[in-house]
Amino acid sequence: MLRLYEVGHWSFEGRLALTGQNDSWSANISWEHSPETEKIKLSGPMGQGAVVISLTGNVVTIDRGGDDVRSSAQPEEFINQQLGMFVPVRSLRYWVVGLPEPSLAYNDTDAGFNQAGWLNEYKQMQIVGDGAMPHKITVMNNKVKLKLIIDHWVLNDTKTN
């Protein structure tokens, strides 16, 4: 059985839809995780309009290409300003692999769990190596709804389609 808290490196490729009270958008997403860094690339069709979000420790950097690179020591607030809606990136790094954030209380539900005011539902799973990983995820609160479809997982050295 796969022990996800022990998986130090993982990545995935997929599609993301984000809906807030005043705005919504969708993007292709590529996320690379290591114990030290999160690297999230969001792009439109054919890779156009790519934005790379890097989170190392308490510093987030958003690179929109060219000379448009901005950093902040307040990651979630900064990402909120840039996206126009709040996305809990620190918790999301756990939620995308199907786990509650270990430092916060949570309650199980039939399809996932509630944590920090966010409902996490795992609509569909896929076989990856010796275990199952999320394929379709919905994360929502009363202001934001995030839908994620993960097409390809890489766990350490295991890749799936």
From TrEMBL:
GO cellular component annotations of the record? cell outer membrane
Q: Give the top-rank taxon of the lineage listed in the UniProt record for this protein.
A: Bacteria
> Which Pfam families does the UniProt record give?
LolB
Q: Which GO terms describe its biological process?
A: protein transport
**Topology of the protein relative to the lipid bilayer:** Lipid-anchor
UniProt keyword annotation of Chaperone present: yes
Keyword check for RNA-binding: no
Tell me the InterPro entries matching this sequence. Answer: LolA/LolB/LppX, OM_lipoprot_LolB
CDD domains named among the record's database cross-references? LolB (cd16326)
Q: In this entry, which stretches build a coiled coil?
A: none
Task: Assign the protein's first listed, main location to one coarse class.
Answer: membrane
Any signal peptide, and if so, which residues? none
Keyword terms of this UniProt record: Cell outer membrane, Chaperone, Lipoprotein, Membrane, Palmitate, Protein transport, Signal, Transport
Query: Which cell locations does it reside in?
Result: Cell outer membrane
Q: Which family is this sequence assigned to?
A: Belongs to the LolB family.
- Give the quaternary structure: Monomer.
What's the protein name? Answer: Outer-membrane lipoprotein LolB
Q: What is the lineage of its organism?
A: Bacteria, Pseudomonadati, Pseudomonadota, Gammaproteobacteria, Methylococcales
